[in-house]
Each structure stands twice: as C-alpha cells, then as structure tokens.
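This protein record is not my work; I was only asked to verify it. The record follows directly below this note.
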Amino acid sequence: MTILELREVEASYGQGRVLQGVDLSMQQGECVALLGRNGMGKTTTIRTIMGQLPLLAGAISRFGDSRSHRPSHDIAASGIGLVPEGRQIFSNLSVQENLTAFHRPDQTGQAGWGAESVLALFPRLAERLDHAGSNLSGGEQQMLAIGRALMTNPRLLILDEATEGLAPIIRQQIWQCLAEIRKSGQSILVVDKNIRDLAVIADRFLILEKGQVVWQGEPQTLLDDKAIQHRYLGV
C-alpha cells in the first residue's frame, strides 16, 4: 500500500524556488532515507509534505488522500508524526507533560505507543519525567522529540536531521532506538548525513540535488559507490 507519493512537486520560499519537481513514493512499512548536501531541499520537502509550505506545482498523496491544500494540523491528524529539525519541544513543559500533550490513541485499535512504551524505549527520559524541556541535554531533547511523535501513534514517522549536533555516543543510542522502532513495522522517512547508520535501517536511499531527486537505490549500492557519494554528498 502506497502511503506517501510526491509527483513533480515544486515549492519555494518567496521568489526562490527550492523544489524543482520532486518525485518520491513510500510503501507501508518501508523506511526511506533522504540525503543531500545542505540547501538541496530536504527540509523543504518535509515542510511541503506537512503542508507548512504551499505547493506551486505537482501533487502529494498521503494515505490515498490527494487533496492539495490541506492545513498542517489536518495532515498531522491523518497519521504523520514529525520530529522537526531543531527538536522544537515545549521547553516550559516537563517531559511527562510533553508526552501527554501529544498522546493520540492508535487508530488501528491496537495497543500502540503510550507513555510506558516510549519510556521503555528511552530510559533516560523515565529518569527525568519532572524535568522541564529546557533542562534536558540536546540528546535528551531529541529523545523526547521522537517519543512525542510516537505518542501520536503515527502511520508515518518523519525525522528531519535525526542525529544532527549530537555527541557520538548519543547518536548511537538514537540509531539503536530507531532500529527498534523500525522492527515494529513503523513506516519512516528520515533525513540525516550518517549514511552508514542509515543503511542499517533504510530500505532505500534518495539523494536530492538542487531540488530534484538525482539518485535512488539500495543503501549498499551507495555505500559501494564512492563516486556517487563524492558527487552528491561531498564525502
């Protein structure tokens, strides 16, 4: 079942057109990684999927709904959980309050994600339930941002810069947690720069260059092709 499809999507900030005809599709239960240098359109793609930027051209279908101009809250309520770049947790609320505020029952009728399962996934948060978001470390804030998105019981989880700015040991903890989430069958669209870590959880890689998908394929194919890495990722 196709849960997300972008066809020739174009979007801009003012007069500056960023997306130049992006094509992307995801199946239920799939994990897709979106790669590219800074400024190539990764975050813009996510913002357009979430309705935070209007479509200039093209079409987006989310869970079979192809309405072009939907408000962001309606798109989120349809089953998309977003972990935005910069985390954007509520700094004045406690860990417990951040989680509780976002809880939405699983629409499939299954047990789904709740505070207990999120805290089991992120034990560090269980130790800091009464701490305000502003008193958490960067890694803890990222754990909370992921946990908060899971509390909505999303059909699709989107992570923008999943481990950016985190210490190596915290990055590995995040990747381990994402691997556990992946094992549960969760559909995931993730942006990050760590292709070796992404390769562990992703079914496919897509590379954006100047607002277009210029390469897609299996993770191992990209890991083996240093020329493609150098050309599009600068590594």
